[in-house]
Amino acid sequence: MPNSNQHAALLVMDVQNAIASRFSGNGEVLLPFQKAVEAARSHHIPVIFVRLAFREGFPEVSPRNKTFSKIAEAGWGAMTPTDFGAQIHESVEPLPGEPIVTKLRVSAFTGSDLEVILRGRQIDTLILSGISTSGVVLSTLREAADRDFALTVLSDACLDNDPEVHRVLTEKIFPRQAEVLTVEAWAAALD
């Protein structure tokens, strides 16, 4: 394993059934995620899965939280940890021993034990992928940068409902704090 990968981890964020199902033909649009997971595993880079889930009845959700109160009101995708909607999508199914981190807000760090896992494994470099670019990826990138992690965003392993927002983030905003690469370019650089 190359030295540059010793302290890196791939985060696969919110690629769970309730969220992935919002993208038509999700099998094909999830191929970059599959390729990123395969590349990480083949180069001994830990893969950490992050999902959004709440307790039964959504006690963590404030009515003042515009995003999550709508989810709670609608019972969106039955988002408790055991519900189908909260499970990692089968196209990127975790292997035994690969952590699944449950978060309570947009950022992968908020309400989760992600940082404990990263610090325990001496990880200082994060490779980010997720659904959505303007949600979990943006929020996690900002928080991770503030926590002094080195960052790479896999532009084609990020999805957003708004292609223009995705473009602006990956071309103009993210490069200020992270290296932005396609999965293919990132995987090639690992060899």
TrEMBL record:
GO terms for MF: hydrolase activity
Question: PANTHER family given for it?
Answer: ISOCHORISMATASE FAMILY PROTEIN YECD, PEROXYUREIDOACRYLATE/UREIDOACRYLATE AMIDOHYDROLASE-RELATED
Instruction: Give the record's keywords alphabetically.
Output: Hydrolase
User: What sections of the sequence does the record tag as coiled-coil?
Assistant: none
Isochorismatase-like domain: from which residue to which, for each copy? 8-184
Top-level taxonomy? Bacteria, Bacillati, Bacillota, Bacilli, Bacillales
Database matches in Pfam families: Isochorismatase (PF00857)
Q: Which organism is it from?
A: Paenibacillus pectinilyticus
Family, similarity comment? Belongs to the isochorismatase family.
| The keyword Aminoacyl-tRNA synthetase belongs to this UniProt entry's keyword annotation | no
Q: What is this protein called?
A: Isochorismatase
Q: InterPro entries given for it?
A: Isochorismatase-like_dom, Isochorismatase-like_hydrls, Isochorismatase-like_sf
Q: Which SUPFAM superfamilies match?
A: Isochorismatase-like hydrolases (SSF52499)
**Superkingdom of the source?**
Bacteria
